[in-house]
Amino acid sequence: MTSAAPKPPTPEELLQHALRLPKEQRLRLADQIWESVEDEGWPDDVHPAWKAEVARRIRSIKDGAAVFVEGEEHLRRLRDKYGA
User: How far is 19 from 73, CA to CA, in rounded Å?
Assistant: First the structure.
């Protein structure tokens, strides 16, 4: 007598289990899921160079190299630089 393969969990069951994980593990899981589908969302006409640039920027955010500036501060800098 052969036993049936165990039934895989539903997405809802997976989510409920994932929500019980500690925050760091949930973040790592979310990141891994995002990376697994990241390239699938690109329209066919997006140039590979743009995809590479987006990937580079995402890496700089993840590794802490990116510097964020509030919108109003950015606009002030642009006005100072180019006049307005």
Answer: 37
